[in-house]
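Re-run with default settings, no changes from the original entry. Doing this only to confirm the output is reproducible before filing.
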Amino acid sequence: MRRAWITVGTALLAARLGAQEFKPPRVSGAPSGTRIGLFGFGVRGGVDLRTGQVVVGTTLDLGDLFTTRVRLRPSGEIGAFKGVNTYAASLEALYRFTGDDQVAIPYLGTGMSVAGHDKCGADPGCPALWVNVVFGFELHYKSTFNWLLEYHGMDTMRRHRLYVGLTTRRGN
């Protein structure tokens, strides 16, 4: 009889504990708000139209600011082959006019750069802080990559750079 009571008690306890099963909350389809993290990266090459330097660089997609259309993008680039070698580290906020699922994604943004050159230690004005304007397009290439075509007006529009590159697509 004792075993019967233990079996019945265990069965009732197990049924009661089953009611405590964790059920995760439902997640809405589209994320919104500020999200920070590494969501993608890109590489690019181009030319500085003022000096004729070849410029190569990389970008990171570090997240959304306030909405999925405003992206936070740091980048770094090096210019070489004409005059002294140059470098720039930038942080920009880009507004994307369409969603990530479109064939062409135009964007416009602004940001700041810390820029310098080979002989920066001897130059009292180096490194310099530049204000940038960015305009570009991402064009669908593969399921995980987009082409990048971009104009960079740097140093308060005293320098002009054109870029072509590849960047990863979000959501894949």
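The mean pLDDT is 85. The helical segments are 2-18.
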